[in-house]
Amino acid sequence: MDISIFLNPVNKDLLDSNTLYLAKQIGNSIDFYNNDDINIEDYDIAIIGINEDRNSVDNAGCKDAPDVIRQALYPLYNHWKNVKIIDLGNIKTGFNIEDTYYAINQVFLTLLKNHVIPIVLGGSQDLTFPLYQAYENTGKLVNITAIDSCFDIGHDKEALNSKSYLSYIVLHQPNYLFNFTNIGYQTYFNDDDVITLIKKLYFDSCRLGNAHNNISLTEPLLRNADIVSIDISAFKASDAPGVKRCSPNGFLGEEGCQMTRYAGLSNKLSSIGFFEYNPNYDINNMTAKMISQMIWYFIEGFSNRIDDIPTPESEDFIKYIVQIEEQEEMVFLCHKLTEKWWIDLSFKSKDNEMCQRHHYIPCSKQDYDQAMHNEVPDRWWQYYQKLM
Q1: Which of 33, 95, 178, 253 has its CB 3.0 to 4.6 Å from that of 290, i.e. a possible disulfide?
Q2: Is 14:71 a contact under the CB 8 Å cutoff?
Q3: Cα–Cα distance between 132 and 142 in angstroms, integer?
Q4: Domains delineated in the chain
Q5: What span, in angstroms and rounded, lies between the C-alpha atoms of 145 and 263?
Q6: 5: number of CA atoms within 13 Å, CB side?
Q7: Strands across the sheet with 317-322, in order?
Q8: pTM metric for this prediction
């Protein structure tokens, strides 16, 4: 499909490279869609803005985020000679929101088929739903990781919006969600029944405090994601004042950069979005600058990707077999170069073909150490239940 029919080029005022950007700054060293034909297969990463907030919950104005983020991103220096980047501009806003969702679906599906990673700027987090729908025609079960202070599960029969999109993903038919992960939830923002439901669905979650204490705990959770959806209100108001629902507690900007670098390093990840930023509440564009630096670290991670996903034929891993009393033996793999750990559940290789890419589960050395102490890691048990 010709995706140009869904796109508006970047505002020309942002592209005055003769006066604004030096040769190696991003604004003068990447390509831009300008109403010409696009050879999208020539690129690794596509930046896309979405001016849509009609299904936001009390956050009108987040549709204006894309160009403000660009103003902060373009002056940063491009260090990635091996990464081809294009800014596709903004997806045209539809007459109604379903039209916008359809445009998102078609643009992202084209990018996925051409192995181009979209970096989504702006809008509300309900846009994660049409992004997820784009995977329907890929024939794969996918994993979503949300960096968010809340589980956006919504209430019974609640319309699709930025606080209920997860329930629409879970209930969507055909369903091709294998796993959902939340990083950074804050218990006092969430109904205890919802927290219980997340556990019953065998979804992953990591409380803000645990991530604060050891940010490396988030690495396996991000390595397992196909889609990463970031709600900027998950960050402290001191670091990200540009949100309507700001909070004194949340992630630090440095932690956000570390997590997006983890995401960029993952060979599995194929899309990432930054949602809920509202320029109307920002101070000196501080939040836009934080997001732009998170994007920078995502691209930095991408530029350093190494193919470290296990396969049955791979010889790049050291295998560790652990026998726990009254349990099946557990198999762990450690990549010889990156030293990243995986749980091997490939003994389920005869089950549904769509699940086979999920037989190798990212984990940490802590999971292996726990097994060595005759304890079943939660991650092993959770995915064993999913694959039974």
Answers
A1: 253
A2: yes
A3: 8
A4: 3-303 (3.40.800.10), 317-387 (no CATH)
A5: 10
A6: 7
A7: 317-322, 330-335, 341-344, 360-363
A8: 0.95
